[in-house]
Amino acid sequence: MFSGISQNFWINLIGFQIIWWVCVLFGNTWLAITWALLGCHLLFHREPISEACYILICATIGFGIDALLTFKGIFIFQESVFQDSSLKESSSIPPLWLFALWISFSATLRQSLGFFSKHYVLAAILGAVGGSGSYLTAEKFDQVSFGFTTWHTGFLLAFIWLILFPLLIWISHYIPRGRYAKVV
Prior knowledge:
By secondary structure, this protein is an all-alpha fold.
């Protein structure tokens, strides 16, 4: 416990990739694996309280933006938080696997993506390309469809991620560090 192994670049990056693929391929059906891996991340982190606060803040921001995009009809999910995948009805609430994915992504921001904490322009460029690309890939696996054309949605997501990724990195400077850091 608290060994810091989950902060290792490769372990953190591979853990995120596993969760990304599990969420995108299996949706809500394999959430137990996702939650277990995320629990291990905190269990094996040197600063679990600070990390949990940071993850929760970033995941809430990201999921909130995705919920707004879903509510506005830009994202269309067949699964939602309140139904299982067998119902196949469109919902204006994103599925739980997307929140798990946001938590997982947030767990990489101080570890495997920590390099960007001093490179905001590069973070903006990578965010625009990688962030939007992640949704475009999820669309190819039929986990999300778009209310606009793929091009329009891609450009909108690139603009959002151009700002969002550096913002999430920037927030890390304002979350107290330390195993027993006070949370204001």
